[in-house]
Every structure is written in C-alpha cells, then in structure tokens.
Design a protein that fits this description.
Layout lengths: L1 E6 L5 E5 L4 H9 L21 E6 L2 E3 L9 H5 L2 E3 L3 E3 L3 E5 L7
Parallel strand pairs: 1-7
Antiparallel strand pairs: 1-2, 3-5, 3-7, 4-6
Bound molecules: FE2/S2 (inorganic) cluster.
Amino acid sequence: MSHTIKLTDTGETFCCRDDQHLLQGMQTFQIGKPMLDAITVGCRGGGCGVCRIRVVEGEYELKKMSRKHVSAEEQAEGIVLACRVFPRCDLLVEVLPVAKPA
Ligand code: FES
C-alpha cells in the first residue's frame, strides 16, 4: 500500500509504500522526475544522521535508531531518521537542517 508524504516547508509530496523507508520511497518516486528539494540522503542505514526529520502528523513504524543521532527526548517530539521510518498512513513531515559536525 502506498502513502502520500508531504513536506511542511515546500508543500512538495511524494509517494512511499509501507514496505519502503521514507528515503527509498522518495528516491523511487523521483526517478524520471525533477528532484524534490527534500530530505538529505546519506548512508540509508541509520548510521550518518543526515536524514533527520520530524513527523508532524501520521502513524509510522520505526526501526532501531542510534541515540547518537536522535535522543529519547527528540524521539518523543517526533524527530526520527527518515531511513528508519516506514509509513502506516499519509504523513506530514518537517525536514530538519543537517547537523554540522562539532
Ligand atoms: S541516511 Fe544516514 S542515517 Fe539516514
């Protein structure tokens, strides 16, 4: 089943199946289309932290995330790694700035 993912800052949307994480869905959707001004893509495995987003609305399944990139407090506010999120309905998502190395 496919869900619509909407980005709060640009209003852009893409489709993502419930067996794809959000980065997979975004990249599949973009094939043959203009690039979205969207989520930064890195390792796609939860290791680099560049794909941080905040889910504003909607249900999702979350795979294990490193506390190095998302604290428990941030997770409680809906902050997650897009490459660890599988949508369970349409989502409204805020793209967060990529953290600069300290
Ligand atoms: S792309 Fe590296 S953590 Fe998501």
